[in-house]
Amino acid sequence: MLASLFALLIFPAGLFVLVNGLAYHWIDRKLVARLQNRVGPRWFQPAADMVKLLANEEVLPTGVDARLFTALPVVALAGALAAMIYLPIAGLPPLYNFPGDLIVAVYLLSLLTLCTGLAGAISKDRFSIIGATRALTQLFSYEAPFLLALLGPAFAAGSWQINEIMAYTSSQWLILTQPVGFVVALIGLMGKLEMAPFDTPEAETEIVAGAMTEYSGRGLALFLLGREVELVGGLTLIAAFYLGGINNPFDYALKTLVLLLGVAGVQTLMTRLRIDQVVGLWWRYGALLALGQWLLLLGQRMGT
Amino acid sequence: MNALEQAQDILAAWVQAWHTPEDNRFDAQVAPADLISTVQALDDHGWGYLVAITGLDHGAEAGEMEVLYHFCRGAAVLTLRVAIARGQAAVPSVCAIIPYASVFERELAEMLGVEVYGTPDPSRLFLPDDWPEAVYPLRKDAELD
Amino acid sequence: MSKEQFTIPIGPQHPALKEPGHFTLTVDGEVVTGASVRLGYAHRGIEKAVESRNWVQDLYLLERICGICSHIHATAYCLGVEKLAGVTAPPRAQAIRVLVAELERIHSHLLWLGVAAHQAGFDTLFMYSWRDRETVMEVLEQLTGNRVNYSANLLGGVKFDVDTRVLETILSGLDFLETRTHHYLDIVSGDRIFLQRTRGIGMMTSEQAERLGVTGPTARASGVRRDIRVDAPYAAYDRYPIQVVVETTGDLEARFIVRLKELLETYHLIRTLLDGLPEGDLKTRMPRRIAAGETISRVEAPRGELFYFIKSDGGDQPARIKVRTPTLSNMASVTQLAVGHQLADMPMLLTGIDPCFSCNDRLTTVQTSGESETWTWEKLRQYGIASYRERG
Questions:
Q1: Residue B129 CB neighbours (<10 A)
Q2: Is position B27 within any domain?
Q3: Are B77 and B69 within 8 A, CB to CB?
Q4: B80-118 burial, b for 16+ CB within 10 Å, e for fewer?
Q5: What is the domain extent for residue C124?
Q6: What residues have CB less than 8 Å from A216, skipping those under 6 apart?
Q7: CB pairs below 8 Å between A and C: how many?
Q8: Which of A204, A206, A269 sits opposite C124 (nearest CB)?
């Protein structure tokens, strides 16, 4: 009992991931800033932002369902945190596992976007509704390729269980045999996290803050924390599957940070895509490439 | 024939008086009723483009206002001067010929109280929504405090 | 989303607008079906205010119409008033006016490049172009003492000279900016993802451009060859001719290219100008009262043709000054072109004309309940203090 509580509140799911998320968020911001020739924030800035937001008054817009409005950020964060239990956070083997936990983890990681979309849709604000529409549209476009990209390693390992896939990928770097899957997975993660150039759902210059426009204080803080947790979870999953597994804390830090550098680079290099361009990109290229990769693997397996 | 001589030719039928204030400029006095025909004639001949509409208030004593339509072509500036009575300040809209004149006409109407009849959008452009009716800030006798 | 019609307010306060304006967009899903504009949020009543100040005071007031193209407003005014007074500023003064105007153009175009990139969500270009813009800002500061509102003009001349030290700063600054501008030209015409947001967007043919009354770089990007610096040279532009940059495609990409190529022209012009800067006085005497008459002064501001109509009745104050800023003329094109475009294109489309709302809006009124009145600064200040005290 105590051990489960510890797992949920401190490590791997609770406090540790939150701190880790804030740190990675800072590194991401700092990297983007340096790449853009800016100074960037100081190390405690994301944490300070959180403290400020949590202390701020939470404004409830008139006409919204108050219970749903306050519950959604909690569900979003809880979903993201719950996914961590199945992931090799900090290079330690996942705490819990069962056959098919990969699907559960991916599902839990999608919960954040679903909650964002729902939050925007109930906010009764024009910018929120457009933001929500875009968030959900984007969800439908990257989710399938992202899943296909994660199924590639699962297929190669012949298992749907994260630690068994890891055992398989530790012996070989799948980025070499399935490069397409790796790229699709990493870009898919950026879409999930609404990072530039996939930040259409919260395109500041068009729709202010998108679905989050009406959120303030605690609700906004929880959503943002959820996103940071997902950043950690997503990077862990991709590193574990494609970069030769994660075997110890050092391995974990190195591989996820290399991925983060790549993510920051893409953010710096690209112009925001329009929503129709996002959908086009994913279905025309992302999904087909991932599917092609998958069929290739299938062919290989049949062949051997 | 330079641009201004051409303009003179085009407008000969309507112009009441010519005046050359400076090099490359021509001021043509036009009756309010002839404004549309003159602008149409300029447009038909493709002479220049409307650059601005200036409203001039000559004060309560003179009892007269003028609306100036400035057309430019290269360095040449042709100004159509339309004199109107201050009491019934009104000019026809030229938007049917020059669509972008709409913003100029909206500004003229709210700032100087010149009624522009036929203008497609008579709503306010610059003044606040709760600005009092019939207070026209650019008139010489406007009381603003 | 359903087929329901939806209006989206952009402004008066909106992250896409760096200044207040109000656009109402009707959208169907992501597609804009209608647009209208309301201005005046930065209206300061300058056209009225100039009628109660003397000719010299007005110079400083008019220079504050715009924070970005301040010098060009003052130049248009000075040239007009000098014409009325029958005075011509000395050649060196005219050349320095052109020099500051062109440096201002560099600052304005680079600022625009950054804003436009930010609207597209390409913040890297935004950051880099604004970093490079600092070069010209520093040049301007060294030359005039100010980063904006240079106050270079006097009625009858200019206030300062160009010394050799500043000359070197300008020339080395230009060399740096020239390489950077070439680099940006490569980006805006070569970056495929950026081109997705600019190529074929906001198309305006030259006929449309003429019908919509657009001016400046926006018009030149649609193939309308119109530039007051060439059509009706003022100040010293007859001595330092420029090439008019025209593109014919008429989309957002062309507006980027025209502005960047204009920068290259400007660098060239400044070098020629500094090479043969005429010797002589910086100013001539101006009478305090200006002879009665009316004049028109047209100059090429960074955003397009700036038009001044100045009327004097022989006193020490103008009888009327009418300012037609390029943005007002360009505004009609935004509401017209918006229809049929994606919502995501709106910030870009608006920025495409390089709008300057302060230029457009020239009155401070404070609204409390239903009534509106013009408040003095002191009253406003007291109101602010009292209001915060009440809130605690």
A1: 10
A2: yes
A3: no
A4: bbbebebeebebbbbbeebebbbbbbbbbbbbbbbbbee
A5: 46-329+350-360
A6: A53, A56, A57, A58, A59
A7: 77
A8: A269
The pLDDT of residue C151? 87
Cβ <8 Å between B70 and C296: yes
Taking alpha carbons only, the member of C260, C272, C254, C321 closest to residue C294 is C321
Q: Does residue C18 or residue A93 have the better pLDDT?
A: A93
In this structure, are residues C239 and C262 in contact, taking their beta carbons and an 8 Å threshold? no
Q: Does C40 touch chain B (CB under 8 A)?
A: yes
Domain of B14, in residue numbers: 3-87
Q: How confident is the model at residue C269 (pLDDT cuts 50, 70, 90)?
A: very high
Can you tell me whether residue C230 is helix, strand or coil? Answer: helix
Cα–Cα distance between C22 and C9 in angstroms, integer?
Answer: 7
Give the tokens for residue B121: 């959008």
Give the alpha-carbon dihedral of C323, C326, C330, C332, to 10 degrees: 0
Mind listing the pLDDT tens digit of every residue in chain B (145 residues)? 688 888 888 888 888 888 888 888 888 899 988 899 999 998 988 888 899 999 988 888 888 899 999 998 888 899 999 999 888 888 999 988 888 888 889 888 888 888 888 888 888 888 877 888 888 888 888 776 6
Closest CA to A80 of A37, A119, A118, A111: A111
Do B and C touch, 3+ Cβ pairs within 8 Å? The answer is yes
**Cβ–Cβ gap C344/A200 under 8 Å:** yes
Contact C330/C216 with Cβ under 8 angstroms? yes
Q: Is B134 in the C-facing interface, judged by CB distances under 8 Å?
A: no
Q: B72: which residues sit within 8 A by CB, 6+ positions away? A: B48, B49, B51, B78, C298, C305
CA atoms of B42 and C176, how far apart (whole Å): 47
Mutate to test the interface with A, among C10, C28, C30 (most CBs of A within 10 A): C30
Q: Give the C-alpha distances (Å, rounded to integers) separating C25 from C38, C118, C347.
A: 12, 21, 12
Q: Is residue C342 part of a domain?
A: no
Indicate the angle between helix axes C326-338 and B101-112, nearest 10 degrees. Answer: 120
Is B18 in the C-facing interface, judged by CB distances under 8 Å?
no
For residue C388, how many other CB atoms are within 10 A of its CB? Answer: 9
Strands B115-117 and B90-92: parallel
Residue with tokens 């999904």: A287
Distance from CA of B74 to the nearest CA of C (A): 5
Threshold 0.80, pTM exceeds: yes
Is there a domain that residue C314 lies in?
yes
DSSP string, A42-69: -TTHHHHHHHHHHHSPPP--TTS-HHHH
Question: What CATH number did the domain enclosing B26 receive?
Answer: 3.30.460.80
Q: Is the pLDDT of residue C367 over 70?
A: no
Q: Number of structural domains, chain B?
A: 1
Query: pLDDT above 70 covers what percent of chain C?
Result: 86
Chains touching chain B through at least 3 C-beta pairs below 8 angstroms are C
The ranges of chain A with pLDDT < 70 are 203-206, 304
- Residue B73 domain-assigned (yes or no): yes
Q: Which of residues 28-47 of B touch C (CB under 8 A)?
A: none
On whether any CB of chain B is under 8 Å from the CB of C52, the answer is no
pLDDT in tens, A187-203: 888 888 888 777 777 76
Q: Is the pLDDT of residue C2 over 70?
A: no
What CA–CA distances, in Å, run from C296 to A26, B43, B83, C94, C232? 57, 22, 19, 18, 12
Residue C1, pLDDT > 50, answer no
Q: Where are the alpha helices (DSSP H) in chain C?
A: 46-49, 55-63, 70-85, 91-119, 123-144, 164-190, 192-198, 206-211, 216-220, 228-231, 252-275, 326-338, 346-352, 357-360, 377-391
- Contact B104/C328, CB-based, under 8 Å? yes
Q: Is residue B37 part of a domain?
A: yes
